[in-house]
């Protein structure tokens, strides 16, 4: 075709620049784009989220770069998308640059749209526009900003910054007027500052076809219903959009004549040209070049989709159409109004729908990028497989769609408390960015690791409770002792026998003590510190402080103690992270490095999961949301017993998970009740109150677990299977489960970051130890029955429900209260050692198999800082047996205190019991006198008979 009869090239004579409403990597790379510039007089390119979704979300154009980035970097999906989009935009700007030069900056632009998620965020849009402008760093770039009421001020600001802007999603004349005003004010502000305004280019993208699509639909519906104004309505089909656009152009001409504009023009300002967008014909009844043919006029742009571009080249009709029949256009609009077509309503709806459809397209785009990224990371990222019964699946899908539509993942990352209860949640989200922060400062930790090694410690004894001990315990149990480094022991009990066992297990003179407490005020770490400091002093003398480090939040009581006692080091936690979310902060990392673990690579492993759960990762591809919605929805439909099955090599992850789930969600009469370490049974022993979470170490799975899980899936139980390809991936799971817990808490409608009911038993315990300090003994208590070595305690309410006087009878009547959907909690204040763990395990399985209910096997006082919150504050579906004993070892005194470890343990058990009873729980306490071993055996046997 010769240049002379190419309608696209003819447009120039009428003052209109044809741009292309399309971008695609291969199109730029293979020279197709350049061909349009050279042969058709193409003068610009526009993109939008839907265009990028088509380009990047499908096909293979980007696979090479995807692969390269996914393998070389740990990055989030938004960054990945943006890196590729920026490369595309930049490549296109290079092709269009000669046009920019030739037209002296009037044309030759390529547009990149800000995130559609920011359409209602003035400052967010300003920041994003500035960021993208800088990142692309090309003179012929335009940043696209939507014309929402919130973004009009952003446009003004960004223009005054000197950034080129393409205003998008303009539908109404009023919105256009506001945008042109913002442009002028932006220029005026810049001019006033004495800065150059001549290089700023801007277009106002006025959407066309979408208006006809919507109005035509209204017309067709009315006509179909036999509207009496049938023919007048039909006459308006395909007319309103063009008429509306013509009116916008009239306004433009008006403003250009104004003195205000002339002043700016004299200073070199370029007009903000109207750009006709949405010019692909959607109704096949219309000529395919309709929205180009009819809108040709000076100082305008038409961004044309590829098919329309080809059609126009072939048979477009070029004439000065834009200023033709303006009166008729006015009449079209007046007729439409008369006929009850509400243009304002239409344009308002279109703006809203436009924002939301670009957000949907962006979700789809990020979803497909995320799915490719997940696939390309292969075994580096833990997998998740979800098997749900159909009714639950439907609800989980709906919850996931709600999370997508409402942009809740982004809200979590924006630390928006409205995701939960609108309380103080935003103050507790420091765990979201702790991995990045710790990685930035990893050299501090690595230096400490070197020092620990150099000092030649044999053991590390960590003293802490709950969040301060359970993460380190996972590390100790999962990774074992590292060559050349001390062995990590974690003590989270004050029972005298347990304290002694640990004291005997370490060489006090060669032990590094880590005293770990966020608040610094928790009773157990304080008394344990007092005890071991004195004990070590006997061996180390004045140098004792050099064997102690503290991990605590800034300004805590523990910090003061550590300073006074000349601790070797004090590591700080972050106040915006609660104990159970603290494992990836210094609370987990300090013991990790001391024990010789490769902290940098572990943090990077965790970071991979953090990035996979990032703000941009849509729910369906977000590993944390996937798990969290199953858990949260499970609770809302009565499946609140989260049964954690972990491969043997990573079994202890369950102990950490218990605290995370129970303390986060067990409150306000609701709970996810963690059921940890309950050996899998036949499907027949499970009710409808469970969700199973199988955390499977793919490199070392357990065949029996695999088989049992398969059966559960076949039986229709909900099962989430998480695959860790490497033992180090427990660090990924730390983050995934934190995120999932936050999501579940949101679905449950609770504040996932407080623990309101833990304090209650602490208060009771304190009252008891105070009483001891005053009187030298704990207040008297009276059993309601005794049987040999056993005494039984409970409150009046429970007493009334119990019958019998013997061990067998009392247990029988207590457990006869268990019904389907309940769980049984055995709360044993005895040393947590192998024989006792076996004892409790054996017992709980007997209860589970007979009563067909979930069981929790817990040791006091450790569970008080973990599942204790849910037992007291959560749903009233627990039936508890508290087991206490006379201390079989001699009691141990605490330096500086009147009370002993034994007294503290007894006071804690009583405090715990009192709160359970106050909260209306079904609870019985059995106290064993004399020999513990035989007492436990008898109790076990009696209980097995009682539950039969
Ligand atoms: O680290 P701290 O402040 O000593 O607290 C230990 C544990 O106690 C709790 O506050 C519950 O009592 C947990 O949330 C926390 O992990
Ligand atoms: O700037 C371009 C617009 O995003 C595009 O023209 C919208 O076109 P559509 O209405 O065909 O989606």
TrEMBL record:
Keywords from the UniProt entry? Cytoplasm, Gluconeogenesis, Glycolysis, Isomerase, Pentose shunt, Schiff base, Transferase
Matching PROSITE patterns: P_GLUCOSE_ISOMERASE_3, TRANSALDOLASE_1
Q: In which pathway does it act?
A: Carbohydrate degradation; glycolysis; D-glyceraldehyde 3-phosphate and glycerone phosphate from D-glucose: step 2/4; Carbohydrate degradation; pentose phosphate pathway; D-glyceraldehyde 3-phosphate and beta-D-fructose 6-phosphate from D-ribose 5-phosphate and D-xylulose 5-phosphate (non-oxidative stage): step 2/3
Q: InterPro entries annotated for this entry?
A: Aldolase_TIM, G6P_Isomerase, SIS_dom_sf, SIS_PGI_1, TAL/FSA, Transaldolase_2, Transaldolase_AS
Q: Where in the cell is it found?
A: Cytoplasm
- Any idea which GO molecular function terms this record carries? carbohydrate derivative binding; glucose-6-phosphate isomerase activity; transaldolase activity
Q: Which Gene3D superfamilies match?
A: Aldolase class I, Glucose-6-phosphate isomerase like protein, domain 1
Give the primary localization class.
Answer: cytoplasm
Q: Which reaction does it catalyse?
A: D-sedoheptulose 7-phosphate + D-glyceraldehyde 3-phosphate = D-erythrose 4-phosphate + beta-D-fructose 6-phosphate; alpha-D-glucose 6-phosphate = beta-D-fructose 6-phosphate
The text of the family note is:
Belongs to the transaldolase family. Type 2 subfamily.
Q: What does this protein do?
A: Transaldolase is important for the balance of metabolites in the pentose-phosphate pathway.
State the name under which the record lists this protein: Transaldolase
User: Which organism is the protein's source?
Assistant: Entomobacter blattae
